[in-house]
Amino acid sequence: MNIIRAKDYQDMSRKAANIISAQIIMKPDCVLGLATGSTPIGTYKQLIDWYNKGDLDFSKVSTVNLDEYRGLKHTDSQSYYYFMHENLFSHVNIRKEATFVPDGTNPDAGAACAEHESVIRELGGIDLQLLGLGNNGHIGFNEPGAAFEKETHCVDLTESTIKANARFFDSIEEVPTQAYTMGIRTIMQAKKILVVVNGAGKADIVARAFWGPVTPEVPASILQMHPDVTVVCDEEALSMAPQR
Ligand code: GLP
Q1: Is the CB of 205 inside a 6 Å radius of any atom of ligand 1?
Q2: Residue 85: active-site member
Q3: What confidence score (pLDDT) does residue 244 get?
Q4: Residue 136 catalytic?
Q5: Does any ligand 1 atom lie closer than 6 A to the CB of residue 93?
Q6: pLDDT at position 48, please?
Q7: What is the pLDDT of residue 220?
Q8: Percent of the chain scored above 90 by pLDDT?
Q9: What is the pTM of this model?
Q10: How many whole angstroms separate alpha carbon 215 and alpha carbon 208?
Q11: Which of 103, 143, 151, 234 is catalytic?
C-alpha cells in the first residue's frame, strides 16, 4: 500500500487528480471506476480544470460507478447518476454512452446488478478504481460484515450510513434504505485502486482500515491485500495512524 500524505483537502484532491490524469494520459481508452460522496468532489473539479486547460482528453475514456441508491430517478438530485453528471460528466468531453452507473431505476435488483457486472466485464475490467471511505469503513456501499467475495449486489444500508448520508437530503425519511453496489470482489478485481480520505472525523477509521487487521467488520481493510493501492489522505485523516 502506498500512503500519500497531503496537506489539506485541496492538496489531497490535486494529488488524486494527478494520479487519474496519469492513467488517462498513459491509456487514453482506460476504464475508470468512479465514486460519489463529498470526498472526491475536489478531485473531479481539478480534472475539469485540467480538461478546460486542454491538458486532458476524456473522449476515449469509459467509466463505471461503484454504487447507486435503489429507487431514485436519474433526475433526482440525490441520485448518484445525477451527481456524476453534475460533478464531472457534463463538464468534460466524455461520451455519455461510455458512462455506466448501476441502474437504480430498475426495481429488479438481480437484473440491475448482473447488468453492471457484465458491463465491467465487457469493458475488459477496471484500470483504476477511485474510492472514498465511509465513516464505518465501508467502500461503495459494502457495509461492515459484508462478504468479501460478493460482486455487484443489492444491500440494506446500515443506520449509521443512512444517518451520515441524511445531510444530503431534506429529511432522514427521504434517504433510501437500499442500494446497488459493486461488491468487494468487483472492487478487488480493479487493476489499480486509489482511495481519497480527508478530515479528522475519518482519522480513527483510516487507522483501523489501513493499519488494523483485515476483517469484514472494516470492509476497506481488505484493500491491504490488493497489489496496487494508493491512499491519499490529508494530515487530519492521518492523525491517528501509527508512525505518521
Ligand atoms: C457514501 C458512498 C461511498 C462514499 C461514502 C463516504 O456512502 N456510497 O462511496 O465513500 O459515502 O462519503 P463522504 O466522502 O461524503 O464522506
Answers
A1: no
A2: no
A3: 58
A4: yes
A5: no
A6: 98
A7: 98
A8: 94
A9: 0.96
A10: 10
A11: 143
